[in-house]
Amino acid sequence: MTIKITDALVGEHGPLYAQLDRLATVTDGSVDAIQSCAQLLAAGLASHARLEDELLFAALEQRTGRDSLLEDMYEDHEQVDALLSELARVDDPEQARSLAARLVALARNHFAKEEKAVFPLAEQVLGDAELVRLGEDWEYRRLDTPFTLEANRQ
Ligand SMILES: [Fe+2]
Ligand SMILES: [Fe+2]
Prior knowledge:
There is one protein chain. This protein is mostly helical. The chain contains 5 helices and no strands. Helix 2 packs across helix 4 and helix 3 (68-89) crosses helix 4 (93-143). Bound molecules: fe (ii) ion (2 copies). One fe (ii) ion (FE2) is lined by residues 9, 13, 48, 52, 111, 114.
């Protein structure tokens, strides 16, 4: 299979957007309902962010240095992770709803920044051949990167 890593990562955003939509609508539910929805999302997000950090962002950083855009992406990943951890621990429904809403807004905004700024920049800076080589790494790593939150915490 030949796929550019940017296309693979955009593809991974698809089901994550669906899970964010679900979390946005479950916020009227109980703490348990919100937490179990967030837990499922967390597994997918952590694994996705890890492959981004270790493959695409690492390659970009080598070429452009750790610029403000990349710094912003790393920070978003950390903030998403922190919100997910906090959400897993609360038992007050109002707090759970508020954390879930912040998480949904942050993650949607983060995906939009990647799709509109980071991935187009990677296309320019790295070029097709490097993106396809990273796509091969993604394919290999995707098979052995478990979809669990704990396994992907760094
Ligand atoms: Fe990301
Ligand atoms: Fe992403």
